[in-house]
């Protein structure tokens, strides 16, 4: 392999720059030239490519985001797009490609490899930690830290005002961020997509806390958490909104309104949103991203195409990308049980 392309696709995650730096530095050791492709697959479609050298990656390790930019563009959208990619692949004399992405980007990478034989190695990233085949994705630890700090801060204001604070966190269809940050931040109730909740049970816990003299409460709710389908306390319109929504989010506001209606306790909502994805990566995410970047280049040299670098236990391993994208990694039962110990 003489020329290696690298791109970052999907939503950004803290640690992407650390991974890029690692790919370049490992490739340099082998005398491989690295071309950075801008804005995910878009850069390969439109020929937005730049050589990544020791100098272009200097100082990026602690920076959030991605110096290459990212997008959710699908490289398989039309035959014309596929043809442009083929032409640019030849033009830039690429011998292999490292694709750093989440479920959507890695699925496309796998399809490109299967359908057209592109020599591609994947690197998993997402703050949601919902990819199979790897024990953890980088970005998750930073999102946890941001959410935990927010919960700490909300505790003091909740306590001062005797309020219920609802904190809505990201995580897509999985409850890893909610459960992790909720436990670390000492939340009184944690609601996750894997376990539909009952509004009556939430209100019962809040009233019980009040009867014990705990006049404030913190509820962490994952953006895709939802009540039971037969929930008594939702109007038909509210049910339709909750169960047919296509965009994630909004559950925090609905829940807060219901709590105020049913308990009379003053309730406020904080949606953490993109703060969980931005800014400086934690040491753990920098370390994990760096190890994955190094491993990915080693896999390129070993021709392990169609595979992804992954963390299993304490070790870096190579797994088929298929494994990562064939399922959503649901929140672990043990972690959920641990969260439930502290309800109320
Ligand atoms: O997958 C990461 C994530 O931040 C999810 O937690 C969230 O649901 C989604 O991306 C938001 O996507 P977008 O950046 O397209 O708004």
Automatic annotation (TrEMBL):
Involved pathway(s): Carbohydrate degradation; glycolysis; D-glyceraldehyde 3-phosphate and glycerone phosphate from D-glucose: step 3/4
Reaction(s) this enzyme catalyzes, per UniProt: beta-D-fructose 6-phosphate + ATP = beta-D-fructose 1,6-bisphosphate + ADP + H(+)
Site residues by UniProt (Important for substrate specificity): 104
InterPro entries membership: ATP_PFK (IPR022953), ATP_PFK_prok-type (IPR012003), Phosphofructokinase_dom (IPR000023), Phosphofructokinase_III (IPR012829), PKF_sf (IPR035966)
EC number: 2.7.1.11
Cofactor: Mg(2+)
Major location (coarse): cytoplasm
Molecular function via GO: 6-phosphofructokinase activity; AMP binding; ATP binding; diphosphate-fructose-6-phosphate 1-phosphotransferase activity; fructose-6-phosphate binding; identical protein binding; metal ion binding; monosaccharide binding
Domain Phosphofructokinase: 4-300
Alphabetical GO biological process terms: canonical glycolysis; fructose 1,6-bisphosphate metabolic process; fructose 6-phosphate metabolic process
GO cellular component: 6-phosphofructokinase complex
Keywords: ATP-binding, Cytoplasm, Glycolysis, Kinase, Magnesium, Metal-binding, Nucleotide-binding, Transferase
Compartment(s): Cytoplasm
Active site per the UniProt annotation: 128 (proton acceptor)
Binding, ATP: 11, 72-73, 102-105
Record has Cytoplasm as a keyword: yes
Positions of Mg(2+) binding: 103
Binding site for substrate: 126-128, 163, 170-172, 223, 268, 274-277
Homology family: Belongs to the phosphofructokinase type A (PFKA) family. Mixed-substrate PFK group III subfamily.
Function description: Catalyzes the phosphorylation of D-fructose 6-phosphate to fructose 1,6-bisphosphate by ATP, the first committing step of glycolysis.
NCBIfam families: PFK_mixed, PRK03202.1
Subunit structure comment from the entry: Homodimer or homotetramer.
Name listed for the protein in its UniProt record: ATP-dependent 6-phosphofructokinase
């Amino acid at each position: 392999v003489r020329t290696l392309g690298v791109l970052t696709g999907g939503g950004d995650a803290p640690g992407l720059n650390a991974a890029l730096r690692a790919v370049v530095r490992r490739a340099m050791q082998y005398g491989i030239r690295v071309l950075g492709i801008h804005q995910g697959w878009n850069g390969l479609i439109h020929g937005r490519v730049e050589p990544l050298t020791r100098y272009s990656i200097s100082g990026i390790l602690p920076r959030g985001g991605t110096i290459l930019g990212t997008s959710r563009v699908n490289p398989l959208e039309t035959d014309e797009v596929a043809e442009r990619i083929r032409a640019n692949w030849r033009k830039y004399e690429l011998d292999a490609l490292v694709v750093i992405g989440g479920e959507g980007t890695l699925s496309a990478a796998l399809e490109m490899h299967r359908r057209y034989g592109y020599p591609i190695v994947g690197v998993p990233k997402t703050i949601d930690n919902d990819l199979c085949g790897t024990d953890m994705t980088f970005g998750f630890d930073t999102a946890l830290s941001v959410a935990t700090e927010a919960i700490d801060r909300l505790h003091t204001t909740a306590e001062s005002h005797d309020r219920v604070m609802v904190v809505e966190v990201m995580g897509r269809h999985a409850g890893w961020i909610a459960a992790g940050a909720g436990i670390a931040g000492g939340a009184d109730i944690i609601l996750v997509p894997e376990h539909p909740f009952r509004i009556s049970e939430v209100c019962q816990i809040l009233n019980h806390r009040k009867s014990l003299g705990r006049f404030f409460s913190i509820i962490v709710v994952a953006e895709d958490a939802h009540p039971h389908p037969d929930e008594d306390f939702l109007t038909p319109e509210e049910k339709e909104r909750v169960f047919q929504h296509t965009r994630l989010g909004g559950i925090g506001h609905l829940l807060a309104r219901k709590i105020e209606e049913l308990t009379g306790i003053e309730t406020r909502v904080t949606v953490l949103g993109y703060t969980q994805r931005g800014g400086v990566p934690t040491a753990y995410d920098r370390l994990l991203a760096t190890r994955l970047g190094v491993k990915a280049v080693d896999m390129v040299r070993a021709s392990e195409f169609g595979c992804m670098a992954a963390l299993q236990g304490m070790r870096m391993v190579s797994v088929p990308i298929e494994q990562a994208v064939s399922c959503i990694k649901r929140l672990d039962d043990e972690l959920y049980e641990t969260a439930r110990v502290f309800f109320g």
